[in-house]
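Dear support,

Our group has been running a series of protein-ligand predictions, and this particular one with copper (II) ion is the one our PI (initials K.S.) wants archived with full inputs and outputs. We had some confusion internally about which version of the output was final, so please treat the block below as the authoritative record. The input we submitted was:
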Amino acid sequence: MLRSRLTALVAGSLLLFGSFLGPAAVSSAAGVRATPPIVKAQNPAKKTVTLFIEAQANGANSGFNFNGLAKGKGEVTVPRGWEVTVLFLNHGAIPHSAVVTKSATSVAPAFPGAGMKNATAGVGKGKRARFAFRASRAGTYYIVCAVPGHEPAGMWLRLIVSASAKRAD
Ligand SMILES: [Cu+2]
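Confirmed final output from the archive:
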């Protein structure tokens, strides 16, 4: 009993020590970083918004997340009629993608242009993508990863297109 406690203490100390060894040790030990905001920029006068979607931004939901959020826990609102530009970056070791859909069980774009090309295949680690669409109809939509299995694993957020909002949020 005492021996296992001592072992745990020693292991804990080694982990603490390990975290001071450098960036590589930190990222391999934790694999977690702060959730970045999704709304990157907006211009209400021009009715434009830029979203920054970061796939597998940290270890939340086993990495099946956008900006650290999954299973609809993240929500973005954009005013109806705005031009939405989505910048995408995959931090994960496996391919990911992003598509705006009408449901959390679909991978079909809800608006013309509302998804990455080859979204089912996704893009690999460190790869970026970009797409743009006009949020022409109000309603509840979903930002999903279209790589098979990822959406069922919870890799989706909500996108609200609002008839009353004056700003993206
Ligand atoms: Cu994915």
